[in-house]
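Notes from the 1:1 (GR / supervisor)

We went over the backlog. Supervisor wanted to see one worked example end to end before approving the batch request, so GR pasted a single chain during the call. The sequence is below; no edits were made to it. Supervisor asked that the structure be written out right there so they could see what the output format looks like.
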Amino acid sequence: MKFIENDKVFIIAELSANHGGQLEIAKETVRAAKRAGADAIKLQTYTADTITLNVKNDLFKIKQGTHWDGQYLYDLYADASLSWDWHKPLFDVAKEEGLICFSSPFDKTAVDFLETLNVPAYKIASFEITDIPLIDYVASKKKPIIISTGIASLEDIELALETCRKAGNNDITLLQCTSEYPAVPEHANLLMIPDLKKRFNVKVGLSDHTMGIEAPVIATALGAKVIEKHFILNRNIESADAHFSLDETEFKQMVDAVRLAEKMLGKVNYELTDKKLKSREFSRSLFVAEDLKKGEMFTEKNVRSVRPAYGLHTKYLKDVLGKKAKNDIEKGTPLNFDLIEKA
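Structure output shown during the call:
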């Protein structure tokens, strides 16, 4: 199933941890994503035990200057994870709303579970790009794969792509991503988007963690065909990701801005539309600028390039100069070859 088309940016609302531990909040978030103009809602399928170990030593404590510093990985993921029992209800709500629903699996059991839901695509999260066995297993399902590159080296990306292609899966989209939460604008590196496309010959997009909506709009102008942004029903919900997520109003503003950018980008087309042809009437052409008598010579003083465009093309000016008027000509007459005396 190829749901990422070349003529439209595919916009993903990332639910992530923004369910607040309540199924009803998660369901309403899906509905709100539809109202905000998203094409898809994306979940994350893991448990604390499938993503880390329940070990409380310094190795498993977050200490990188993030919003989550001081927490143990196991505790963070236990709080943030989405119940697997909620997946089908959320898939059902998404279907009712006309949204595509898919997920990021974090181990093979998550992939197997998502297969029972007939998930249409998979997302490999930034921190999983080095999990080659997971990527190989996901690729073997022969469904579209979206891969974030937030922590990836060039070699990591090459290996991930090689793994997908060896598994016979070439429906790959790479997302430029900055794994900062939130990401500062100077670290967005949006010029990576056209480079990823050219270097790896894949579809490209942006998984955005910056505040605001500017990065997705710029990314669209740079050729992004996928935009992913964290989405929250409202910031009063207690969530590990609330501080860098967009609410419904903000997400809709982003969608509207991206759609406008798409319209403004248009397409490469040198053909003249009816509107352009009409507007050409205001371009320049050669007009007689003074009253002329029959036999009088055309000069730079009495022939000028002016608006509108009803006279000869300006490229003929040198051909006209020095020639003689065939008849009396009134000032303001569009010049044409019938008014010029033949040599």
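Supervisor's comment: The chain has two domains: 10-46+81-265, 274-339.
Batch request approved.
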